Amino acid sequence: MIPVTKPFIPPLAEYNKYLKGIWKRSWLTNNGPLVNELEIRLKENLGVPYCLYVGNGTIALQMAIKALKLEGEIITTPFSYVATTSSIVWEGCKPVFADIHPKTLNIDPSKIEALITPKTSAILATHCFGNPCAIDEIELLAKKHGLKVIYDAAHCFGTTYKGKSVFHYGDISTTSFHATKLFHSVEGGAVFTTDHGLFEKLGYLRNFGHDGPEKFNGVGINGKNSEFHAAMGLVNLRHVDQIKKRRKDQYSYYLNKLSGSSVQFIQLEDEVGFNYAYFPVIFKSEKVALEVKRVLEINQIFPRRYFYPSLSKLDYVSGNTPISDDISSRILCLPVYHELTVEEQDLVCRFVLNTLN
Ligand SMILES: *Cc1c(COP(=O)(O)O)cnc(C)c1O
C-alpha cells in the first residue's frame, strides 16, 4: 500500500530520552521547558524573531484572526485546506473568495482589489503546497487599503522567500505541525509575527488570557500544546534537513519521469527556496484525473484530491471562483513521504503514464 503521505517516525530511543525528562519533572503541559526549547529551536532554525507553539494549525489561524481583531469580510483563497475558510467563519467573519492564478494555484492578486469593500478587514491567503503567494503585491494592496494580512503557511516549513523564512511575512503567519506535514509534532502548529505587541497579545490568547494566576488580559482560549508533542517536534527537528533533502530528490524524480506527458505542474514563484512538500499534478480534465485515481487505487496506491472541493463550493459560504473550481476538479497529489522508495515512485509513474496513453 502506498498512501499519499506517511508521517515521519524518528528513532524511538530519541523520543524516549525526552520522556525520561518529562517523567522526572512531572511537568506535562502549560508552556513547559520542552515547549520553550522547541520555540527557541524553531526561531533559530527559521531565523524568525517570534514564534508561539500552539495546539494545531487551525487554532493558530483562529488566534491570528482574534489577535488582529478582524471583523466583517476577509478576502481569501478558495484553493486550500478547509481550515482556511472554516476558521474565518468560526471567528464570525465572512470569507470573500478571490480566484486563484491557474499556474501557481495561489490567490491571484489582480482579483483582490475589486472585492475590497468598506467591510473588508484583511486578506488571508495560503501559500499553497509551500509555494509562496504574490507576497509583494498583496503587501502593497494591504497598505493601500489599510488591511491586515494573515498567511496560512501550513505547507511551508523550510520555504524561503527572498532568502527569509516565508513565516516572516504578513502581520501574522500560521503553520501546522500535523502528522501529515513535512515537519510535524503529531499535532501542533505555530503563529509567527515580527511585531512584539502582537506576539504578546497572541501569548495571552493562547493561555485563556492569563496574566498571572489571578489576572486576565482579555478573552483567551486554550491554544497550548503539551510537552509530549514538543518532544516529538524537538526530535523531528533534528531530522528535518534530511527530510527536506529527500523530498527534493523525490520531487525531481517525479518531475523528470512525468514531464513530456500531458500533465501540468505548479509554477513556482520567483525568488523562492522551495520545500518540495507535495507533488501536485494537474490533468487535462476531471475525467482523466479520476481515471488515474481509479487505476492507482486498484493497485493499492492512494493519491488525494488536494484540494477538492474548491472552498467557495462549501455549503456555508458562497463565491464565484471558476479557475479554482476547474483546477480542483482535475488535480491530484501523488504520494510523497520520507520512506517512499524510487521503485515505488517508478510504479506510481508507470500507472499514471499508462493511463494517460
Ligand atoms: C493542515 C492544514 C491546516 C490545519 O492544520 P491542523 O494542524 O490540522 O489544524 C490549515 N491550513 C492548511 C492549508 C493545511 O494544510
From TrEMBL:
Record-level GO BP terms: polysaccharide biosynthetic process
Pfam families: DegT_DnrJ_EryC1 (PF01041)
Keyword Ribonucleoprotein appears in the UniProt entry: no
Catalytic-site annotation from UniProt: 181 (proton acceptor)
UniProt xrefs under InterPro entries: DegT/StrS_aminotransferase, PyrdxlP-dep_Trfase, PyrdxlP-dep_Trfase_major
Keyword Methyltransferase: no
GO MF: pyridoxal phosphate binding; transaminase activity
Sorted UniProt keywords: Pyridoxal phosphate
N6-(pyridoxal phosphate)lysine modified-residue sites: 181
Family note: Belongs to the DegT/DnrJ/EryC1 family.
Protein name per Swiss-Prot or TrEMBL: dTDP-4-amino-4,6-dideoxygalactose transaminase
Organism: Algoriphagus boseongensis
